[in-house]
Design goal:
Layout lengths: L5 E8 L16 H8 L1 E4 L9 H10 L3 H4 L19 H7 L3 E6 L19 E4 L13 E2 H4 L1 H11 L9 H5 L1 E3 L7 H14 L9 E10 L4 E3 H4 L31 H6 L3 H32 L5 E7 L7 H4 L8 H4 L3 E5 L9 E3 L8 H8 L22 E5 L14 E5 L3 E6 L15 E6 L17 H21 L19 E5 L2 E4 L1
Parallel strand pairs: 1-7, 1-9, 2-11, 3-4, 3-7, 4-5, 6-8
Antiparallel strand pairs: 2-10, 9-10, 12-13, 13-14, 14-15, 16-17
Helix pairs in contact: 8-11
Length: 514
């Protein structure tokens, strides 16, 4: 048995924080519920950017999107050597881990013309096709491993739009192909086979990244998981007046017509969409359960630290038929986060932790558990360390070049368990510095108004709260941005500070004082 723990990273795509049975009894996720019951459930976790690409770059490097340089879905870093921090898998590979990557990464884009990089993974399995230019050429592909099953799956779901985020994608499709013959089923089967075929007693520690596309739309769900639910049990989502959209920071972009389209549907169709979202999550949970069972049967799980989360959330009809993400509201930014297994103190097992945690905490948690040197200059801290922040931060700079002609001025969130502040500047980034007086704000009482329907930003009774959250947001960002990047060319001397004086910084290799 290795001295380092095996590290198991389970990931979904676009999963709301409450799409777990332990948070919402309507959702059937027995395997993840057991994981939560044996570990820590962080019920206030947020992503750093409410969209796939910048969120995953942030998670992979332990830094905020404004630090990685990848702020929207229309950006990316081509070469591994150009990443601003050594990515998670590479740090663990350098510590002696075998690094396996199964499933969705979204660290590449088809408009990058270079050959995709390994990002620290020694072996890669992917369910997408190589012509999408998303994966290194040595990746094992479903389309080549099981071409007939892959072709049948593509044929059945071809009526759904690419990307899935449209009216038809959210209405979804009942699949008569069993889950074992979907892409998630293939990834699960290959992962289980590789675990079963691991040599000897697994002396080399394993970093296993197992990442699924569900419950991201299009909601193309195997029938056996849709049949777990009764539509009569699914309530209508809470509604609001459409005029609230006028004060929203959210770019309307490619989903501006959702309200008109979705309002015209029969309420039963809207409820069917929620049902299929929950069914997609049950399918993902079943896949996770198979992987965890294989690890247990192999004897690996007892010496494994397991972390589960998602890259961002899903509005799922909140705030009057809002779907997808691309906003800083609760359904979009809050994500599930579970930590269980080796290294979790006995007194923490089965607990709920309501401190403000973020996706940037994933890298330091897994790297420090794996024996990597800590990086104190990062934005995140290990989830097993004491609390490191008073609130949680997220940022948004528009959705990306596919949906918007130019990058938008920043939208920033500071969130506590009780309150949320959003500051945003309308318009593009180009002339933003000349328009600071146009800044707008939103302030929500998350206890009394959890769906964020009443903006209290201009409410005089909330002035002290608004100003305090603003100060916290600005100082948090100032400190985080000052810590990174750390320039190795700057000489820092270990010197004693004279009594009554403070070190400001190095000048020509010597400290100066004030």
């Amino acid at each position: 048995m290795p001295t380092q723990p095996h590290l198991i990273f389970l990931m979904t795509d676009q999963q709301r924080w409450d799409a777990l049975g332990c948070e919402n009894p309507l959702v059937q996720t027995p395997h993840l519920d057991r994981l939560a019951a044996s570990g820590i459930r962080f019920n206030q976790a947020v992503c750093q950017a409410p969209m796939c690409v910048p969120s995953r770059y942030s998670l992979m490097q332990g830094l905020y999107p404004s630090q990685t340089g990848v702020r929207t879905n229309g950006q990316g870093t081509c070469q591994d050597s150009e990443l601003v921090n050594t990515p998670l898998a590479e740090q663990l590979r350098q510590q002696g881990y075998r690094t396996w990557g199964f499933g969705k990464t979204h660290w590449y884009s088809s408009f990058f013309k270079n050959e995709p990089q390994p990002r620290g993974f020694e072996r890669i399995w992917q369910a997408r096709t190589q012509d999408e230019n998303l994966y290194p050429p040595e990746a094992v592909l479903w389309s080549e491993d099981e071409p007939e099953a892959h072709a049948a799956w593509r044929e059945e779901q071809k009526i759904l739009p690419k990307g899935g985020e449209s009216l038809e994608g959210y209405k979804g499709l009942r699949s008569e192909i069993p889950g074992s013959h979907h892409r998630e089923g293939w990834l699960t089967r290959k992962c289980v086979e590789e675990i079963q075929n691991m040599e000897g007693d697994c002396d080399q520690p394993l970093f296993l990244y197992f990442s699924l596309d569900f419950p991201h739309a299009g909601l193309y769900v195997p029938a056996e998981f849709e049949d777990l639910y009764d539509i009569e049990d699914i309530p209508e989502r809470p509604l609001a007046d459409w005029h609230l959209q006028e004060e929203s920071h959210r770019p309307r972009g490619h989903i501006a017509d959702f309200h008109t389209q979705w309002s015209a549907l029969d309420p039963r169709e809207r409820r069917r969409s929620t049902l299929r979202y929950y069914a997609a999550m049950s399918y993902a949970d079943d896949c996770f359960g198979q992987v965890l069972a294989a690890l247990e049967q192999k004897g690996i799980l007892k010496n494994s630290l397991v972390l589960m989360t998602s890259d961002h959330g899903e509005m799922l009809g909140d705030r009057d038929h809002r779907y997808s993400k691309y906003c800083l509201y609760e359904g979009s930014v809050r994500v599930p986060m579970l930590l269980s297994g080796a290294g979790v103190p006995d007194e923490k097992k089965g607990t709920v932790d309501d401190r403000p945690v973020e996706l940037v905490d994933v890298l330091p948690t897994l790297c420090e558990a794996g024996g990597c040197d800590p990086q104190p200059e990062l934005a995140g801290r290990s989830l097993l360390a004491p609390p490191c922040r008073q609130g949680s931060f997220a940022e948004m700079h528009g959705a990306g070049t596919r949906f918007e002609p130019s990058h938008r001025a920043p939208m920033l969130m500071w969130r506590t368990k009780e309150w949320k502040l959003i500051l945003h500047l309308p318009g593009s980034m180009g002339d933003a510095l000349t328009r600071l007086d146009e800044m707008q704000g939103e302030l929500y009482d998350l206890v009394g108004d959890p769906v964020e329907l009443v903006n209290r930003y201009e409410d005089d009774t909330c002035r002290e709260i608004r100003e305090r959250l603003t100060r916290h947001l600005l100082m948090h960002q100032a400190i985080v941005q000052a810590r990174w990047p750390r320039r190795p060319s700057i000489l820092e001397l270990d010197v004693q500070e004279p009594e009554g004086l403070g070190v400001v910084g190095p000048v020509f290799g010597k400290p100066y004082w004030y």
